[in-house]
């Protein structure tokens, strides 16, 4: 069973986000870059499938050279090889263009299952997985918390929690699955794993290598144009509820929620 | 030239979901700003009798797609039918809800139509005849104002609980029409084989009007009953911080924050949650925030409309008693 995991590098979730002087990008100087947390679930699930069915796990990342580091992390966890789609012309591409480049990198590889995170915790679009599936003309199974591939490797049964219920969905393979939290607990890379990862193949591909036209990528080719980035609307610290005892404070709070905030 | 605003209705088991009314209300406002028509596409099986309700919320036209293969929802079937209708109808704007179904569908649909899409928006506006959307990014640590460049329909999804509802007007009615579509069995590669109802019967956090949430200060899973009692009384759902979920105290589906659910209730009560930046990111669009924490320097107080400095094990049960006066 051959499995592909798509990987994005994002600012660590503890990062403060500051807006740059151009007003349309963020300041990246102090950012600690990590593998998108939802992609970690994809890597883990891919490794579990490999342990059961054999085969190879290929990690496909896209972005500047620093993304190599996150691909190496996935290789250290146990993935077999990596592909980094990297090209200066990709900088600032929107989700659709990104998906086109990723799909182009995947289309000539062998795969039964493709994993992506359910969304990148930076742009929060949740679009690339679906678009890659569409471009490869395979089904997408998004926001998945359980994956069961049939013994014969031809079909998969997955669980998708929606509001108030969980759907059990069956699909033919190949299919693209987007990982939701709860799917698994990603393993840590072991020290021998980290040593081995250094020797695993990691190939770099430019847009030209993939037969793509650079003019269709990058900030200038965006169909979703960013007009401006702003900090979140300021939330002023409110009142500290007064009272001598917990009971008095609770009584005052209930009164405020009823009379002032009108939410009770 | 692309004309009109379209919204995709979401229904489950034949009942229209609240998010649908939210996007129909918003669609109405945008259609009025453009001076154009609002069309709602309603898909399902034996669903036509629900089309009238959509007229009362402002739809000029309801396109009904009635087929047993459209119930329950699958990405394959919906994306195939809707993309066909959109190509034919050529709307200027296409809106969906950012529910789980809407997020799943909108991505595939955008890719099929090869158009840009703005996910999980909190504001839509018309500027110079074009759609401008505002969407939180980095889970709300920044907001992006975006527009569409030679990409029609201009496509966006609306965050649940954010768009205000119009008052339904019983005297309004929509022109209801059966859509002309075909669904090729061979194209359907996925199938819903089972639906497991959530036993708690609680409203999902993303749609909840009120949320009572507990963090590390809860000290253990056994103490969440005090939050459950308060929540039951005021009709709230119970959430948790990442540290509570990572400790195994609460299920993943309860997590509020950047790697969990992003919520916008009318009331968010944070109990024993210090307010790590990734948690604040997930709940800062709540309308009223209450923080109960014994550490008066906890960052959560900077975001709270009402702060109570005190031991949650005293304050929460007392609050449960006090709110009874107002129910």
Evaluate the radius of gyration of chain B: 21 Å
User: What's the end-to-end separation of chain B, in Å?
Assistant: 53 Å
CATH superfamily of the largest domain in chain B: HUPs
Form type of chain B: elongated
| Helix count from the secondary structure assignment of chain A | 6
Q: How would a crystallographer describe the biggest sheet of chain A?
A: 7 strands, parallel
- How is the CATH topology of the largest domain in chain A named? Rossmann fold
β-strand number of chain A: 14
Radius of gyration of chain A: 22 Å
Helix fraction of chain A by DSSP (H/I, runs of at least 4): 25-40%
- Described by its quaternary structure, the protein is heterodimer
Pattern of helices and strands of chain B:
EEEHEHEHEHEEEEEEEEHEHEHEEH
Outline the structure in words.
The complex is a heterodimer of chains A (264) and B (327). In chain A, strand 4 (57-62), helix 2 and strand 5 (81-85) form a beta-alpha-beta unit. The longest helix of chain A has 17 residues, at 37-53. Helix content of chain A is 27%, strand content 27%. The model of chain A has no long low-confidence stretch (mean pLDDT 96). Chain A has 2 domains: 3-221, 3-Layer(aba) Sandwich (Rossmann fold); 236-264. The radius of gyration of chain A is 22 Å and the shape is globular. Chain A has helices spanning 37-53, 67-77, 95-106, 128-136, 191-197, 246-259; strands spanning 3-7, 9-11, 33-35, 57-62, 81-85, 113-117, 140-144, 146-149, 155-162, 165-172, 175-179, 202-205, 224-230, 239-240. Chain B has 327 residues and is α/β, with parallel strands linked by helices. Chain B is built from 8 helices and 18 strands. In chain B, the strands form 4 sheets. A 7-stranded parallel beta sheet of chain B has the order 7-11-6-1-4-5-12, sandwiched between helices. A 5-stranded parallel beta sheet of chain B has the order 15-14-16-17-18. In chain B, helix 7 links the parallel strand 16 (267-271) and strand 17 (288-293). Chain B is elongated. The termini of chain B are far apart. The mean pLDDT of chain B is 96. Chains A and B meet through helix 3, helix 4, strand 7, strand 9 and strand 10 of A and helix 4, strand 7, strand 9, strand 10 and strand 13 of B. Strand 10 of chain A pairs antiparallel with strand 13 (190-197) of chain B, so a sheet runs across the interface.
């Amino acid at each position: 069973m051959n499995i592909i995991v798509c990987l994005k590098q994002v600012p660590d979730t503890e990062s403060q986000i500051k807006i740059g002087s151009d007003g349309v990008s963020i300041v990246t100087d102090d950012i600690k870059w990590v593998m998108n947390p939802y992609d970690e679930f994809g890597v883990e699930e891919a490794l579990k499938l490999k342990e059961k069915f054999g085969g190879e796990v290929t990690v496909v990342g896209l972005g500047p050279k620093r993304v190599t580091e996150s691909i190496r992390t996935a290789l250290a966890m146990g993935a077999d090889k990596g592909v980094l789609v990297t090209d200066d012309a990709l900088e600032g591409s929107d989700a659709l263009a990104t998906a086109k480049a990723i799909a182009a990198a995947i289309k000539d590889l062998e795969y039964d299952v493709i994993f992506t995170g359910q969304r990148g915790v930076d742009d929060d679009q949740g679009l690339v997985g679906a678009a890659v599936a569409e471009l490869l003309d395979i089904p997408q199974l998004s926001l998945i918390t359980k994956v069961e591939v049939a013994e014969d490797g031809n079909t998969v049964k997955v669980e998708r929690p929606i509001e108030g219920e969980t759907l059990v969905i069956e699909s033919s393979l190949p299919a693209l699955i987007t990982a939701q939290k709860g799917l698994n607990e990603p393993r840590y890379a072991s020290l021998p794993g980290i040593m081995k990862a250094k020797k695993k193949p990691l190939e770099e591909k430019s847009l030209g290598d993939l037969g793509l036209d650079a003019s269709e990528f990058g900030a200038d080719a965006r169909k979703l144009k960013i007009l401006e980035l702003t900090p979140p609307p300021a939330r002023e610290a409110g009142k500290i509820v007064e009272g001598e005892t917990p009971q008095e404070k609770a009584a005052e709070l209930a009164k405020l929620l009823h009379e002032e905030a009108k939410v009770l | 030239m692309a004309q009109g605003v379209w919204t995709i209705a979401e229904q489950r088991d034949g009942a229209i979901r609240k998010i649908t009314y939210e996007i129909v209300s918003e669609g109405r406002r945008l259609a009025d700003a453009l001076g154009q028509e609002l069309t709602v596409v309603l898909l399902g099986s034996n669903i036509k009798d629900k089309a009238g309700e959509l007229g009362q919320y402002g739809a000029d036209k309801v396109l009904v797609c009635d087929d047993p293969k459209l119930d329950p929802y699958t990405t394959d079937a919906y994306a195939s039918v809707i993309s066909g209708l959109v190509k034919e109808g050529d709307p200027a704007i296409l809106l969906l809800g950012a529910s789980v179904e809407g997020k799943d569908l909108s991505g595939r649909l955008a890719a099929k139509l090869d158009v840009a899409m703005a996910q999980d928006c909190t504001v839509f506006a018309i500027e110079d005849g074009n759609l401008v959307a505002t969407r939180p990014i980095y889970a709300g640590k920044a907001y992006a104002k975006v527009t569409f460049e030679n990409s029609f329909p201009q496509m966006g999804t609306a965050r649940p609980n954010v768009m205000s509802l119009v008052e339904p007007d019983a005297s309004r009615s929509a022109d209801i029409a059966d859509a002309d579509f075909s669904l090729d069995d061979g194209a359907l590669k996925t199938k819903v084989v089972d639906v497991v109802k959530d036993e708690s019967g609680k409203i999902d956090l993303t749609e909840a009007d009120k949320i009572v949430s507990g963090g590390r200060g809860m000290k253990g899973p056994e103490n969440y009953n005090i939050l459950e009692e308060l929540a039951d009384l005021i009709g709230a759902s119970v959430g948790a911080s990442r540290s509570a979920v990572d400790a195994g105290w609460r299920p993943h589906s309860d997590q509020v924050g950047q790697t969990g659910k992003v919520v916008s209730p009318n009331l968010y009560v944070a109990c024993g949650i210090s307010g790590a930046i990734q948690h604040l990111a997930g709940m800062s669009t709540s309308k009223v925030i209450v923080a109960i924490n014994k550490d008066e320097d906890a960052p959560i107080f900077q975001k709270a409309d009402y702060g109570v400095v005190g031991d949650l094990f005293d304050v929460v049960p007392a609050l449960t008693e006090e709110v009874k006066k107002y129910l």
